[in-house]
From TrEMBL:
Residues 6-124 form the Gamma-glutamylcyclotransferase AIG2-like domain. The lineage of its organism: Bacteria, Bacillati, Bacillota, Bacilli, Bacillales. Keywords: Transferase. This is Gamma-glutamylcyclotransferase (GGCT)/AIG2-like uncharacterized protein YtfP. Gene3D superfamilies: Gamma-glutamyl cyclotransferase-like. One of its GO terms (molecular function) is transferase activity. InterPro entries: AIG2-like_dom (IPR009288), GGCT-like (IPR013024), GGCT-like_sf (IPR036568). It comes from Paenibacillus prosopidis. Pfam families: GGACT (PF06094). It comes from the Bacteria.
Amino acid sequence: MDLIRVFIYGSLLPGHSNHHVVANFVHDYSPGQIAGRLVDFGPYPAAIRDSVAKECNSIIRGQWITVDRAGLASMDVLEDFHGIDEYNDYDRIWVQDIQNAEVSGWVYVWDTNRGCPAIPEAYWPDFFARKSG
């Protein structure tokens, strides 16, 4: 079975609204960090890897999960990802963990902030709890 590593940072995390999309496909979880920044799109965040994120050395904390092809396909549907050369809501790009160069995988990102406000925290659940509380 082919296992695929994906970095999750928002509503797909355990205990959040879309975790059910991947829960039955996850073979393991491990903490991680990637370069980028988060913006607030309401009930979930979007990751952006742009010049602002680079200039500020911004990081996003989340989890690396390993899933099979069905798990990746399930996330593709949620993220409205249709393929590399297609129009997508979220693009799926290959990234490397900034603390462990041996860990890399897919992550879903936007190419711009689309007018959404920046999230100051590196870990979306912290921001979401503060926002919701």
